[in-house]
Amino acid sequence: MATQDKSKKQAQANSKSTEPPKKTSQPAVKKESSGGSGIGWLALILTFALAGAGYYFYMQFQASFKSLNSSIQQLNSDSANQQASADQAKGLLKSEINTALDQAQQKIDSAAAAQAESAAQATSQLSETGQRLAETGERLTSLETNTSDSLRILERQIGKNRPDWLIAEAEYLLSVANQRLQLAGDIKTALIALEAADKRLKENGDASLFPVRATIAKDISNLKSTPQPDLVGLASSLLALEGGIHKMPVLLPHSGKIKTTPTAPDERPKFGDWEELATTAWENLKTVAVVRRSDRPIQIMLTPEQVEVIRQSLSLKLEMARLALVKEDEELYKANLDTSKAWLTKYFDMSASENQFVENEINRLSSALIKTPSTDISESLRALRAVPILKLDEEGNAS
């Protein structure tokens, strides 16, 4: 606006300075006024144009300034956001780094602990290995000592002559005889061993061994006079009794077993032959009704199943006696035989010959010997070990 006022004043001044002197003639004055007015209007239009252009450029400048200011603010905002994101990323990265460092430290600590434990175990194993090596060394030393002793004994044994070997064999045979007799009651094997030992001493021919041979002969005589139980024969007798129980008649009345004879389909009774029909009926009636005489009070009639139970009970008692015989349990053996005899006299008909035979067999088996009497044959072994040559060997082994 100041520019426009200034332009107007300048235009007015120019118009006054260039205004020509007034003339008296009227036409001339009118011509000069028309030209000055056109220039003024032109100047005014130019002034307004310049003012509009200046205003337009001013407004454009203002808009550009505002846009620039907004861009600067946006840049500042973006920069702040980027800074915040950078700070956040920095914090996350720092946290991850710290976590990774902690985990790495934990792994390092665990590895160090594992290495320490491994080192401790290795130390312990080394200690155990050293202890084992020491024990092995002690065992080797002991083995060397035992080997040396064995070699010395072997050297002495190799240096023996045949008579010495015969005495050693006789001692071994006497030991076998004592073991078999005391542990298993085997008189037969003990006799064989005693006779073999006496034969070895006879081959030796040393006069100092005669008392030993006399003792051996005494032991042999004692064994031969010792009664030996016939376990096989007794067991066979018990088995035979068990096998004949099903044929033994019982004492109590019972219905027995009705025997039925199958008839062929085409065999039918002929009603014309009355005598044959009556005979057949009578035979069948005799198998159903059996008359027995008894001096005892009449008791209830037993069924075939009950009779079978009585027989099975007697068989079981005899079997238990046989098992006790195998175990050489004399007390149990005789107890089962006594029970079998009581069962026999209570439930079986003792007037029958087969039952009397069973009773006699049970009495014989009860009085039979089932266990070898104890016999001492250790005197001959002690006498042989008292021989000077054996005493020297024992002293050498002890040293």
Describe this structure in a few short sentences:
The protein has twelve helices and no strands.
Q: Could you describe the 3D structure shown?
A:
There is one protein chain. The protein is mostly helical and 399 residues long. The chain has 3 domains: 1-14 and 44-159; 160-227 and 376-398, IL-4 antagonist (De novo design) like domain (Four Helix Bundle (Hemerythrin (Met), subunit A)); 231-260 and 274-288 and 299-367, no CATH class. Helix content is 77%, strand content 0%. It is built from 12 helices and no strands. The longest helix is centred in the first third of the chain and has 133 residues, at 26-158.
What is Rg?
71 Å
Q: Major β-sheet, in short?
A: none
Tell me the count of domains: 3
Give the % helix.
over 70%
Please state the overall shape, judged from the principal axes of the Cα atoms.
elongated
Q: Provide the low-confidence segments as ranges.
A: 16-32, 258-266, 394-399
Q: What distinguishing features does this structure have?
A:
399 residues; Four Helix Bundle (Hemerythrin (Met), subunit A); mainly alpha; disordered C terminus; single chain
Q: What does the secondary structure layout of this molecule look like, with pairings?
A:
Layout: H1 2-17, H2 26-158, H3 162-184, H4 187-204, H5 210-225, H6 231-243, H7 274-288, H8 304-326, H9 330-347, H10 353-367, H11 378-385, H12 388-398
Helix pairs in contact: 1-2, 3-4, 3-11, 4-5, 5-11, 6-8, 8-9, 9-10
